[in-house]
Amino acid sequence: MRRLLKIGCLALGLAAAPAQAEWITSWSAAPVTPGPAMGPIPATPSFSNRTFRQTLRLSAGGTSLRVRLTNAFGTAPLEVGGARVALLDSEGREVAGTSRTLQFAGAPGATIARGAPLLSDPVALDVPPLARLSLSLYLPGDTGPCTCHTTGLDTTDISAPGDFTAAPFTPETTMTMRAFIAGVEVDAPDGTGTIAILGDSITDGVGSTPGANRRWPDLLAERIVARGGAVRGIANQGISGNRILHDGFSESALARLDRDILAVPGVRTLIVFEGVNDLGIGFGDLTRGPAASMSERLPGRSITAAQMIAGYRQIIARARAHGLKVIGATIAPYKGAAYWTPAGEAVRQEINAFIRDSGAFDAVLDFDLVLRDPADPLAMRAEYHSGDHLHGSDAGYRALAESIDLDLLMP
User: Which of 86, 89, 325, 394 could share a disulfide with 94, CB 3.0–4.6 Å?
Assistant: First the structure.
């Protein structure tokens, strides 16, 4: 039948359709709900008539790329006046011949609808694995509170008023947030795919060296590239403070799953590594530590293990409905953190037993076992946390990345 259809098309003089790109996500940053200052997290800024220059470290390479901008939390349409990308060398200098002006449906600018993403047109560019990419983005109007990713762990340069996308500029100010960008996608060979990670500040890389790409998903990408073989992109969708069940630090994992995971181009595997904030906020003493100034704004002060497990099961079911392999990571030890309590610890043990033993997930990453202190298994090893008994150090994040069996990661 297919042969007859093909012959029929040729007889009618119809041209064969061109081969479609195999787009996979090579870099991502989940947008965070704008809001007032909450403890260590600053208030969401607004901008007008500014150019942003952001440096990104990709994971997978390809033969062309496109950029996914976002106005997910905008209250009005957002005008894009211009955008440009270029590869960077190890010293942060643009690589000659790699500068590309982005277009949107053939035009140099576009308007992003309220609440929507915006894909650029593809640009031909040989992108090596682990490439550093500069994105310059000009927004001529008033942005309102930024659709930003709060924990960027790298510097975003912000210009004086005007369009500086085509040339270097001296920044008027800087910030560490990611601004109005959700992802970079590359055209990779057939049989490739993206591994998306639904996580919190531990996946977001809090505690790692800023600007050094030492989050555990970054280090996992390096291992995948070093092994060679099939191309695998990494989409780090960690949000600092995020929880499974409740909003507070952006939307809950259950609420953002469709946008931040299921809509990610090329995603074939999901790693779920969340839950410690549900426990800390649900059971912890929030009158001390970083959460003290924001405890009244955080719902979910009473949760159960059964509710948490039901949340994980929902994530699994919704992801599998899209054909994804779903891998569960056990909740890391956090005794000594400001919001640790014995009650929260008891629930952590119950949830980790579910992750390990229930068979609900397609595979398990036992991050609890990797990070725990043999002398005190409820706590993280001293050299593996950044001083707060909660977030990893560079060494801790490397231990997580090196513990993963790469053969588990793709279906």
Answer: 86
